[in-house]
Amino acid sequence: MAKVTLPDGKILDTPNGVTVADVAGMIGQKLAKDAIAGKINGELADLSQAVTQDCKLEILTPKADNPDSMYVLRHSCAHVMAEAVCYLFPETKLVYGPPVDNGYYYDIDLDRPITPEDFEAIEAKMTEIVKADKPFIRYEMGRDEGMTKLKAEDNRYKIDNAERAEGLLSFYTTGTNQGSDFEDLCRGPHVPSTGRVGAFKITSVAGAYYRGDAREKMLQRIYGTVWPSKKELADYLHRLEEAKKRDHRILGKQLDLYSMHEEIGPGLVHWHPKGSLIRYLIERFWTDEHLKRGYDIVYTPHIASERIYQVSGHLEKYADMMYSPMDIDGVNYYLKPMNCPSHYKMYLSDIRSYRDLPIRMCELGTVYRYEPSGTLHGMLRVRGFTQDDAHTFCTPEQLGQELDLILELMDFMMRSFGYSYKAYLATRPEKYLGTLQEWERATEELRAALQRRDLDYEIDEGGGVFYAPKIDIKLIDSMGREWQGPTHQVDLQAAKRFGITYVGADNAPHEPIIIHRTVLGSMERFVGGLIEHYAGAFPMWLAPVHAVVASISEKSASYAREVYDRLRNAGLRVELDTSAEKIGPKKHNARKQKVPYILVVGEKEAADGTVNVNDRTGKTIGTERLDSFIARCKKEIDERALGTAIS
Ligand SMILES: [Zn+2]
Ligand SMILES: [Zn+2]
User: How far apart are CA 12 and CA 10, in angstroms?
Assistant: First the structure.
C-alpha cells in the first residue's frame, strides 16, 4: 500500500504494484487516456513506472503551458526524429538530443550533410513511426554490461554520455523487439508510445562542435519543434515567421543601422549614422529625464589599474569576464568591466555630510566583458557595450524615497518605449556577504517600494547577487516575449569595502547605502531589442527619417524640393526622392525603410500647396496642407507617440 498525494491535496490509497498509469486510471478514465507521464516527488517518470512508496504524484497531460509536459513531448519527439534519421542514413551516429525552449534538437555525427531539402523525407518517416504507435520500453543494465553493449555499438559519444551518467544505465526501445528495434541510451522519461508525441516539424539544421569544444569534431544539429495539437504547431510556426521578420540582425542591415566586422573583432558593434541617431535620441531623452530627477551626469575612463579591482574584488570574482591586462609603466591596467569603482572614487574625493545626500551619479559608461564567441548574438550579446548606469548614495532613512524615485523613472521609461513589464524581487542567495539582519532590512525596503507603487511582483527566491538583494524587471515586447530589463540592487558591501562614509548629524561617520541600477541595460542590447519590438518601424520621435517627399513626375520635382526644404527648416528629418522612378516603387522603397510618412506630390498638390500623405502601413491618409502636416508631426514627436510603431 502506498499513499499517493495528488496536486489538489487528495490522498489515494493504492494497492501494491500500481504504476503511474494505474493511478491515472483510479482518478478518471479521461485522465488515463490523456496521460503522457507522471511527476513523482518532483521527478519526471514514465507512465509505466511503479509507485512503490508514499509520494506526491502529478499526472501530466499534453499541455503547451506546462513545462514538464512539454519536456516529455519534446524529448520523446527527439527520439522519433533520431529513429527516422538513422533509418534514412544508417551511417548516423547519435550524439545527444535534449529538449530546448520551444522544441528539441539532436546532434548527429554523419559525413553526409543534412540540408533543408532532407526535412520532408525525415518528417515523412517520423509520421510513419508515429502512425505505427510503437511503445517506448525502458530497460536497465548494470554499468559493466551496459558499457560492453555500447562499446560493441562503436559510438564513442554514447560511451562518453554513459561514463558521465550515474548508477544503472537505462535504454529505451521503440517497439517490442529489443535488440532489433530502434533504441537509445537515455534517462527518460517518454510518452508511452510514439503515437503520442503530438504535432511536429523540423525547423533547421546547424553545425555544432561536440561538447561545444572547437577542437572537437563539428557535428550536425537538427532542430525540431513539437506541440500538443496541429493548431498550436501552426500558431508557433506563424510566431516564428513573425520573429524572423523582426530579427534585429536582418533589419539592422536592411535599415542600415549597424554592422560588425570580422577584422575588427566579433561582438563589437559599429553604429551606422541611422543607428547612431536612434541611440543619440535615446541618450538625450535618458539624460534629460535624469537631470529632471536630480541626478548628476558623470564620465569616467575606460581603463583602470589593477589596484582598484583588487579593492573591488573584481579580480577575485569576475576575472574570467575581464580581458587580459595591458602594462602601463609597470602596472597592470584593465579595460573596465563595470563603472561602480570610478563612481565610488568620485564620491570619496570629498568629505560628505548627511546634508549632501542623496548623491545620484549617472553615466552612459562603456564597459568591456568577455563573452565566449559561441554566445555572441547580434547586438544582444556583445563584448563591448554602453551601460546606462547609475549609483545612488543615501542614508538608510532615505532608502525608501530613493527606491520610489528609481521605480518611477523605470516605469516612465518603459512606458515611453511601449513596453509592459513584470517585476521580480530577488532574495538572498545561498552564498552571501553581510549579516542576515542587513539582508532582511534591504529586502523589506525593496518589497515595500514595490507595494507602494502597487506593482505585482514575483519572488525570485535566492536570485539576489552575493552582495545585494534586487528588483529585476522583465520587459514584455510587442510579440509577448520577455526580455531582461532594468535591475536595481541595494548594495550591502561596497561601502565597507571602499571605506565610503558620510558624516551624520551626530558628527560621526556612517556607511551610506549604495543603490546600483540600470534602466535600459545597455544601449546595444536595448536598441537591438527595440528593433525587434517595433519590427524596425520606430515611432516618430526615434525614427531616423520622419518623411520621404516623392515627386510624381519631373513637373512636380521643384515643388517637391520646396516641401523638402520647408520640412527640414521646421526641424523634421526628411529625404527627397525626385528620381525618374514611378511613384509606386518610390512609395514601396520608403515603406521598406519603414519611414513613418511618405508625401506624394504632383502638379495638383503643387498648385494647392498641399501634400498627399501616406503612412508606412500602406494607408493613404489623404491630402493635407503642409503646415498642418508639420504641426501634426511635431505633436507626435513631442508626445513620443507610438503611432504606427506597434501594430
Ligand atoms: Zn530519451
Ligand atoms: Zn554599480
Answer: 7
**pTM score, two decimals?**
0.79
Starting from the CA of residue 465, give the closest ligand: 2
**What's the pLDDT at 183?**
86
Q: At 351, which CATH number?
A: 3.30.930.10
To the query of whether residue 497 is one of the catalytic residues in this protein, the response is no
* Cα first-last separation, the chain: 59
Residues with CB under 5 A from ligand 1 (ion): 186
* Residue of higher predicted confidence among 155 and 392: 392
**Catalytic residue selected from 49, 220, 387, 489:** 387
Q: Has residue 71 got a pLDDT over 70?
A: yes
Mean pLDDT of the chain, nearest integer: 93
Q: In sequence order, which residues have a C-beta less than 8 Å from that of residue 366 and are 6 or more positions away? A: 302, 384, 385, 386, 387
Q: Which residues pair with 328 in a beta bridge?
A: 331
- Give yes or no: residues 269 and 343 share one domain: yes
391 is catalytic: yes
Q: Catalytic residue among 274, 279, 470, 616, which?
A: 470
Kind and range of the H or E run holding 547: strand 547-551
Q: Ligand 1 center to residue 190 CA distance, Å?
A: 6
Please tell me whether residues 38 and 92 are part of one structural domain.
no
Residues 154 and 202 in one domain: yes
Considering the domain boundaries, does residue 305 fall inside one?
Answer: no
Q: In a 10 Å sphere around its CB, with 0-12 CB exposed, 13-18 middle and 19+ buried, how is residue 144 labelled? A: exposed
Predicted pLDDT of residue 645: 79
Which residues, other chains included, contact 148 with Cβ-Cβ below 8 Å and sequence gap of 6+? none
pLDDT at 150 over 90: no
DSSP string, 210-276: GGG-TTS-EEEEEEEEEESSHHHHHHHHHHHHHHHHH-HHHHHHHTT-EEEETTTEEEEEEE-HHHH
Residues 512, 570 within the same domain: no
Catalytic choice (107, 388, 389, 491) = 389
CA 205 / ligand 1 centre spacing (Å) = 20
415 is a catalytic site residue: no
The answer to whether residues 418 and 526 belong to one domain is yes
Distance 30 CA to ligand 1 centre (A): 26
Q: Which of 244, 268, 285 is the last residue of a domain?
A: 244
Q: Is residue 480 part of a domain?
A: yes
Is 94 among the domain residues? Answer: yes
> What is the tens place of the pLDDT at every residue in 458-474?
999 999 988 899 999 99
CATH number at residue 15: 3.10.20.30
CB 108 within 8 A of CB 87: no
List 336, 391, 488, 594, catalytic entry: 391
The predicted structure's pLDDT at residue 149: 84
Does the annotation mark 270 as catalytic?
A: no
Same-domain pairing of 152 and 276: no
Average pLDDT over every residue of 265-289: 97
Instruction: Return the ligand number nearest the Cα of 337.
Output: 2
Domain for residue 317, yes or no? no
Q: Which ligand is nearest to the CA of 470?
A: 2
**Is 85 a residue whose pLDDT tops 70?**
yes
Q: Based on the residue annotation, tell me whether 516 is a catalytic residue of this protein.
A: yes
Ligand closest to Cα of 81 equals 1
**Are 46 and 195 contained in the same domain?**
no
Q: What is the mean pLDDT of residues 131-144?
A: 90
As a whole number, mean pLDDT of residues 617-635 equals 95
Whether 220 is catalytic = no
- 567-577 average pLDDT score: 97
Q: How far is the CA of 193 from the centre of ligand 2 (A)?
A: 53
Total count of domains within the chain: 4
Task: Give the structural domain span for 187.
Answer: 67-244
What share of the chain in percent tops pLDDT 90?
81
Active site residue 389: yes
Contact 73, 21 (CB under 8 A): no
| Domain final residue pick, 533, 557, 583 | 533
Q: How many Å lie between the centroid of ligand 2 and the Cα of residue 527?
A: 21
CATH for 152: 3.30.980.10
- Region 483-492: mean pLDDT is 91
Whether the CA torsion 172, 173, 179, 185 is positive or negative: it is negative
pLDDT at 647: 59
